Amino acid sequence: MSEGPFKTLIGELTPPMQLMMTPGPSSIDPRVYRALAAPVVGHLDPWFKTCMDETQILMRQVFQTENRVTMPLSASGSGGIEAAVLNTLEEGDEAIVCVNGWFSERMYEIALRSPAKITKLEVPYGRAVDPQDVRKAGAGKKIKIVGLAHGETSSGVVTALDPFRKVADELGALLIVDTVASLAAEPLNVDKQRLDIVFSGSQKALSAPPGMSPITVYNGRRLGSSVGAPSGESASADCRRRGHGT
Ligand SMILES: Cc1ncc(COP(=O)(O)O)c(C=O)c1O
Q1: Nearest-angstrom CA–CA distance, 102 and 156
Q2: How far is residue 187's CA from residue 138's CA, in Å, rounded to a whole number?
Q3: CB atoms within 10 A of CB 21
Q4: pLDDT tier at 7, thresholds 50, 70, 90
Q5: Are 231 and 110 in contact (CB under 8 A)?
Q6: What is d(CA 49, CA 244) in angstroms, rounded to the nearest whole number?
Q7: How far is the CA of 182 from the centre of ligand 1 (A)?
Q8: Cβ–Cβ < 8 Å for 90, 234
Q9: Which of 188, 117, 115, 177 is nearest to 152 (CA)?
Q10: Which listed residue, 39, 50, 84, 187, has the most CB atoms within 10 A of its CB?
C-alpha cells in the first residue's frame, strides 16, 4: 500500500482548555475530569451496580424526587425528549406540545413521529406559552400529555411550571418537561411540583461532558394516565427494552 488514508498518522488528542460560558457544553470541574480517567468496569460487574445505585441517589437529589425510575440514559438531551415522548404516546392518543423556540420545536417534531394526534401551541421567540391557551386547546379532549421546555435555550425564556401542572391536572394529562438547560440552574422540585416525566442533559448546568440524559419518571399512575406504553417508534428509547448492553 502506498500513500493514502490508511497511512495517515494522527497525533495525540490535545484539545485546548477553554472557559466555556454558553449554556452548554459548559466547563467541567477537575473532579469530573479525574473520574473520566478512572478505569472502565464491565456493566455486569457488581462494582458497576453500586456505582449505578449511587448515581441514581445523586440524580434523585438534583431532580428533588423519590421516583424509582431516575437514571441516566446514554443519549443526548434529544434522546431524552425521544424517550419521554415516544414512551408515552400511542395510536389514538392526543398531545399538546408548547413551542416557544428551537428546542421545544424539537419536542414537537419528535412527537410527530408517534402515531398520536399532536397539537402545537406556538408563540414567538422570547415569550412563554400561556397555560390558558393549553386549557382552551385541550377543552373537551382526552389529552394524554402536555409537553414543554422549562428553559428554552434558544431564547433564554424560563417558563413557570406550576400553572401548567394545574392545567394538566384539569385535562387529566401527564406533564413532560425538558430541563436540558435548566436542571441545576433554575429551581426545580420534581416531587413538589408533581412533574410526571422530566429529562435533562449532562453538558449544561450539570457541568459534565455531553452524552448522558438524566431522566425521572413518576412512579405510579397519575390521573388515570399510564407511562411506559411503547409506541414502537423507537427501539433505543423504549424504556422497557433498556438493560443489557454497553
Ligand atoms: C432546552 C434544550 N432541549 C434539548 C436540547 C437538545 O440536547 P442535545 O443537544 O444534547 O441533544 C438542548 C440542547 O441545547 C436544549 O437546550
Answers
A1: 11
A2: 28
A3: 7
A4: confident
A5: no
A6: 12
A7: 10
A8: no
A9: 177
A10: 84
List, in order of start, the domains of the chain with CATH numbers: 43-243 (3.40.640.10)
The number of C-alpha atoms within 13 Å of 69 and in the hemisphere containing its C-beta is: 19
* pLDDT tens by residue, 68-78: 999 999 999 99
- The finding on whether 103 has its CB within 6 A of some atom of ligand 1 is yes
Pocket test for ligand 1, best of 74, 78, 157, 206 (most atoms within 8 A of CB): 78
CA distances to 2, 89, 95, 118, 167 from 92, in Å: 60, 9, 10, 11, 21
Ligand 1 within 6 A of CB of 181 = yes
Instruction: Kindly give the distance from the C-alpha atom of residue 90 to the centroid of ligand 1, in angstroms, as a whole number.
Output: 24
Residue 223 has a pLDDT of: 44
What span, in angstroms and rounded, lies between the C-alpha atoms of 40 and 17? 24
**Residue 78 CB less than 6 A away from ligand 1:** yes
Q: How far is the CA of 11 from the centre of ligand 1 (A)?
A: 31
Report the atom number in ligand 1 closest to the C-alpha of 203: 10
Answering whether pTM is above 0.70, one says yes
Instruction: Write out the H or E segment, with its range, that includes residue 138.
Output: helix 131-138
Question: For residues 204 and 185, is the Cβ–Cβ distance under 8 A?
Answer: yes
Residue 63: CB within 6 Å of ligand 1? no
174: closest CA among 156, 150, 197? 197
